[in-house]
């Protein structure tokens, strides 16, 4: 297998990895959007009637989702150019890949500079506190917030002691680990003396930390995808040169055969 065949196979492999990474970023972005929406839909809507601000934790999923779709489109172009052996398609792929790489790096930089900071913590804290206050008057919100407490293993807004001023005991969602019985259900002690519940962090702290982790992971995945894109870019340029060389050799061969016929 010559350099042409090696370049073609390598481009197929790199584009496959590139497409898989694009799908992973898209899936993670959609999941992150759903998690943020799970909190924001429980807020008191009257507090946000005139608030049209889009906060970074709300914008980041869309930013990476757009980049992920761009990656998938570019990878499709890469497969097509490698399959058809067209220098024109490879030129289009190289141009599109260059744009995609810039967008991937830009998305990661924007996320790390603007989203992975105190502004995200403040947004999450304000949202959790708004939801927490809603639980005092709305049973449906209280039930949904309890689901979040179980999922994140947190309790209250800032700390488990937030419940002390208006409840006689912790909600069951702060003590759900006691549900792990193998035979029969048993009474759950969820009083304010419950050691396990008191050791939990507040949901604002836990949610903010998870948001920061997701932003870092998406940014890291974006940069890694850009590196794979750079590799495929180099291979595509090499493949284009191999195609040009192959065509020159074929042209010289045809010319040589024509001269032999004339002789």
TrEMBL record:
<keyword id="KW-1015">Disulfide bond</keyword>
<comment type="similarity">
    <text>Belongs to the tetraspanin (TM4SF) family.</text>
</comment>
<keyword id="KW-0472">Membrane</keyword>
<keyword id="KW-1133">Transmembrane helix</keyword>
<feature type="disulfide bond">
    <location>
        <begin position="155"/>
        <end position="174"/>
    </location>
</feature>
<dbReference type="InterPro" id="IPR018499">
    <property type="entry name" value="Tetraspanin/Peripherin"/>
</dbReference>
<feature type="transmembrane region" description="Helical">
    <location>
        <begin position="89"/>
        <end position="115"/>
    </location>
</feature>
<dbReference type="GO" id="GO:0016020">
    <property type="term" value="C:membrane"/>
</dbReference>
<feature type="transmembrane region" description="Helical">
    <location>
        <begin position="12"/>
        <end position="33"/>
    </location>
</feature>
<dbReference type="InterPro" id="IPR008952">
    <property type="entry name" value="Tetraspanin_EC2_sf"/>
</dbReference>
<dbReference type="Pfam" id="PF00335">
    <property type="entry name" value="Tetraspanin"/>
</dbReference>
<feature type="transmembrane region" description="Helical">
    <location>
        <begin position="59"/>
        <end position="82"/>
    </location>
</feature>
<feature type="transmembrane region" description="Helical">
    <location>
        <begin position="217"/>
        <end position="239"/>
    </location>
</feature>
<protein>
    <recommendedName>
        <fullName>Tetraspanin</fullName>
    </recommendedName>
</protein>
<dbReference type="InterPro" id="IPR000301">
    <property type="entry name" value="Tetraspanin_animals"/>
</dbReference>
<keyword id="KW-0812">Transmembrane</keyword>
């Amino acid at each position: 297998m010559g350099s042409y065949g090696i370049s073609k196979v390598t481009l197929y492999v790199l584009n496959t990895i590139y497409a898989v990474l694009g799908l992973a970023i898209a899936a993670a972005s959609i999941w992150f959007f759903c998690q943020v929406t799970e909190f924001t839909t429980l807020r008191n809507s009257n507090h946000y009637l005139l608030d049209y601000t889009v906060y970074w934790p709300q914008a980041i999923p869309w930013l990476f989702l757009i980049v992920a779709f761009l990656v998938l489109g570019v990878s499709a172009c890469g497969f097509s150019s490698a399959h058809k052996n067209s220098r024109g398609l490879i030129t289009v792929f190289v141009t599109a890949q260059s744009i995609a790489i810039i967008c991937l790096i830009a998305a990661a930089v924007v996320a790390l500079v603007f989203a992975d900071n105190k502004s995200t913590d403040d947004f999450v804290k304000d949202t959790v506190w708004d939801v927490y206050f809603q639980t005092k008057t709305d049973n449906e919100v209280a039930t949904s917030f309890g689901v979040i407490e179980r999922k994140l293993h947190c309790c209250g807004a800032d700390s488990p002691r937030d419940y002390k001023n208006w409840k006689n005991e912790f909600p069951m969602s702060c003590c759900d680990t006691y549900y792990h019985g193998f035979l029969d259900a048993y009474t759950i002690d969820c009083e304010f003396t419950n050691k396990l519940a008191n050791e939990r962090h507040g949901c604002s702290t836990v949610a903010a930390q998870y948001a920061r982790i997701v932003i870092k992971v998406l940014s890291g995945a974006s940069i890694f995808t850009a590196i794979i894109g750079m590799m495929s870019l180099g291979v595509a340029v090499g493949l284009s040169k191999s195609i040009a060389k192959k065509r020159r050799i074929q042209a010289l061969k045809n010319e040589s055969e024509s001269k032999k016929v004339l002789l």
